[in-house]
Amino acid sequence: MVTPNFFWTVCKSSFTVGLIGLTISDRVASIVPVRGFSMSPTFNPHESTSLGLFTDDHVLVEKRCLTDYKFSHGDVVVFCSPSSYKEKHIKRITAMPGDWISVPYSYDTVKIPEGHCWVEGDNPTNSMDSRSFGPIPLGLIRGRVTHILWPPQRVGKIDRKFPQSGLAF
Amino acid sequence: MKCLGEEYMINLKLLRTIFYNMSLFQQWAFLVKEALDKSFLVAKFFCAIHVTDTYLFSTALVHGPSMLPTFNLNGEIVLLDRISTRYGKVGPGDVIIIRSPESPRKVVTKRIIGMEGDTVTYVVDPQNSDITKTIVVPKGHIWVEGDNIYNTYDSRNFGPVPYGLLQGKVFWKIWPTSAFGSIARRPQTVDPALKVME
Lengths: 169, 198
Prior knowledge:
The complex is a heterodimer. Chain A is an alpha+beta fold. Chain A contains 2 helices and 10 strands. Helices cover 18% and strands 30% of the residues of chain A. In chain B, 30% of the residues lie in helices and 27% in strands.
């Protein structure tokens, strides 16, 4: 008589905890691992180390910014890839709507349309970003990265770096 | 009914005597615990609402001229299904809600005309000419159009929409009650010369 009652209590509590955890990770903040080297040296600075869940950088992604979509230059954001919505990428915003971007290796300048932004990885040699798929709508953004939480020697806030190359003004 | 009322009064009196016999600290601790329990209950309720709204079903108010005659001008409340968009189970003919690519705080209702890889032929400017253009929808994007092609701002203006902007699929109308029912898979044709009846 004790065992089914206990099992039911455990079920109820884990369901409640799950519900609350899901709401907090959707509305407040969540922790995600960073895979790949497109954001070196900000995340995963050492290319040669073997990769696993314990050596990846883990960052805090805050979701409060999704209520009004107010982003600015230099924000590191998590967004759904425009070519396959199930993948999420982490890159830095380098241009906001209305800015002009000069596309590298060509003489074009692109004006960022209303409601879009230009994202680039900090490691330009190894990054699939707006230079390949163009400006992305701000609606694809799923959160803003504010702090690194792992590894312990690099715990700290992410700085807003202003872009040095590519912007016409 | 009278018995229940009496029992309730007796319980209340008992609680009151117990309460007044507790020390001040115990009273305070009891009240704090009650407040925490109630607020925890409210928080759990809010979390349940949020999870249902984001992952299962949601409601939305559809208004504006771009989806006439499927949805009327003043506004209709519809039920959204969030499960099919999460698993990619939408196709041409579905009415969907997307976050506008031009202003991320706005959500708009449109109908899917083509999925990735489809070839879409559309009339560029129906009010002024009959010129059509044909494009292939790129990978990971969808082509959406409003049912009322004479008064809509859709993929013909802002291009194919990345799939990640989809918020949900509209599958049922719940208000006004005269419009209660499912959504047609094809837009009914609208003749600009006719006055549209609500």
